[in-house]
């Protein structure tokens, strides 16, 4: 029997049992949940960097967005508040659409 010991999406246990398999789960306390979300974000980012095709990369980005939404809630914000923070930073500092690559800064 494989052991996973990792945070999974809410419907995964149901999907497993609907296939005639059994599984054991537990509900994480808030601090464990926060830590496991951070671990999950790192895992999804690694999978993104390993993706060889655009479709696979987009799947991993979608997974990362789901984890980021959950992390925003853990940190006391909803998705709208997180997006407002993103928009405010983009207005103040710009986005990444112009592909600017900073080489160096002359301090003199």
UniProtKB/TrEMBL annotation:
Keywords: Coiled coil, Hydrolase. It comes from the Bacteria. This is Phosphoribosyl-ATP pyrophosphohydrolase. Residues 34-61 form a coiled coil. The keyword Coiled coil applies. GO terms for molecular function: hydrolase activity.
């Amino acid at each position: 029997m494989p052991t996973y010991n990792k945070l999974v999406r809410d419907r995964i246990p149901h999907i497993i049992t609907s296939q005639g398999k059994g599984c054991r789960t537990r509900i994480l306390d808030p601090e464990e949940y926060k830590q496991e979300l951070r671990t999950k974000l790192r895992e999804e980012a690694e999978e993104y960097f390993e993706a060889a095709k655009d479709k696979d990369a987009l799947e991993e980005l979608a997974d990362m967005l789901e984890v980021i939404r959950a992390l925003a809630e853990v940190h006391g914000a909803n998705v709208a508040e997180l997006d407002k923070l993103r928009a405010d930073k983009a207005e103040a500092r710009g986005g990444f659409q112009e592909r600017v690559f900073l080489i160096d800064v002359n301090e003199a």
